[in-house]
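Field: COMPLEX_INPUT
Field: COMPONENT_COUNT = two
Field: RESIDUE_TOTAL = 628
Field: MODE = joint
Values follow.
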Amino acid sequence: MIIKIGAIKNVAQSKLFVISLLIALVLGALPFILGTYQTLLLAYGLIFAIAGLGFNLLLGYTGLLSFGHAAFFGVGAYAVAFAARDLGIKNMELLLLTGILSTFFLSVIFGIFCSGLTRIFFAIMCLALSQVVWVLSNKLYSITGGSDGMSVKWPSILWFDEYSGSGAFHRFIFDYYYYVLVIFCIMVTLMWLLCHSPFGKVLQAIRDNETRAQFVGINIKKCRFISFVISGSLTGLAGTLWVPLTGHITPESLHWPFSGEILFLTLLGGFQNFSGPIIGGIAFTYLKAYAVASTPYWQFVLGVALLLIVIAMPRGIVGLFSSLIARFTSRSERG
Amino acid sequence: MDIFILQVLNALFYASILYLIASGFTLIFGVMGIANMAHGSFYAVGAFVTAWSLGFLQSRGVEPWLLVFFLPLGAIAVAILGMLIEPILLRPFYQRAHEYQLLLTFGVLLIIEDGIQMIFGSDPLLVDMVIAPFGSLQIFSFRYPNYNFVVIGTGLVTAFLLWALMYRSRFGVVLRATSQDMRMASAMGINVGKVYVLAFGIGSFLAGLGGAIIVPTQTAVVGMGLEALIIAFVVVAVGGIGSQLGALIGALLVALVRTAGVHFVPEIELAVLFLIAVGVLLWRPTGLLGNAP
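Field: COMPLEX_OUTPUT
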């Protein structure tokens, strides 16, 4: 009996592995078909997918709604801008390291404050802390450039030289896309392993019933803290990857409506699924890009889209598709 | 001494506005458990509707002292807006996780923020003509506009009326019963749907009133709702979410801190404010007067 279940699990897992590999290959082939602008959009999509993946470890797996994740994203981006400007670092790997370390420390500090709270109190605490960072980024004009922000040059990637001369934009986007894609694949794999590990199950147990989890002997506060730090660092990594692409950072990406956008993309994909925020990150990027391009009232379009999503597909894109597939297969089995 | 009195008056003026916004927010949260993200935008709508209608009436030749009576137009408009949004958008989702209500009201926020620009344009609206008829009062060496006393008075009267409504009226009993146990209230024959729509309407009205009475002293500008929402969050976090007295005390505290902050550390007064919210949340997660479990 046990062997049989194990075999089924292995079949399901190898199926998942094959599908994921196929998706990764398709993502790898896309830049050859798409133009530079579409490749750029897709790179943004993957970056926001990483941010959503981090955010959803808290929302979907730990049951905590943070309204301050913009702080991690923004600080990751600002760390890159500082390192590039003040330390003269041009190497992307070093910039990544700087970004991750900064957001790791920030998540530890935030985590100490937040991990004792739940529900609306947790959300308000995250909000208040992130707003402190936002105010500082705005007011410390001599360091951060205030609301004008800071510009960031294209870094060098791995052993490739700096990007300059004709066609540099195209080459940079092309190379950087693969850079992001590899990191994206690594992060998705790590997060999948984490969410399906015993620790992931513990987080879900805390989410579903805090009292029971406590009686089983789980140190709730410690687990929430660890989850918070991983979540914040991952969203910070997304911000670190994001800033070389936009080339510019302003306090806007630390302001609370940006936290709302991270929440938006996670729910767009569906927070009850592992793959929800991934799909949501990519879908949100395209939605926003086309809304911004087509009307000055893009917020209005996003707002209407948000209402429609909540009303028509409360479990997000992934939830909608999985229930459609379930209905289709059950019908074909019956027929 | 003069400056001190001036600052205290300014703090009371600001506290009155903050109280109007936060009391509505906390009422809606207390009764329905919804953290209304669009609450700041309701405040902005109140300001814009009042500013626009007063400007329109003035262009039709209405005397400035008469215009004062049209100030509550913005609040009434927001109350109607709220009483439409609750049954149409929010009601179908009370059974679901509260993330959905947060998300729905965030959607409403996005729509209203751009909706204001579509309808009223992106230029600030100025209606300071209603201040002059009130005159001003000589306090030591400076003159203080009497209109500011009207704003402070509005806050005090509203606080008293809300208290009377909650604790000295039949509707208040029904409202408190519904917020404590919605199912039980429903079983006792209370029309919960009606209570919810009225509570949401009153909460929205209060936000709109805040916008309506502040707009003569400032301008109605795009984005004013976003800041109002965050400050309202801080007020209720400090005072205790769901508590009316908490909203009053929170508003007074936040107004004093901000006024002092602007005077002493103008660069980072907002950061100080948020740090105080962090401190209160650490010390008493439910706020100074909150008793939520």
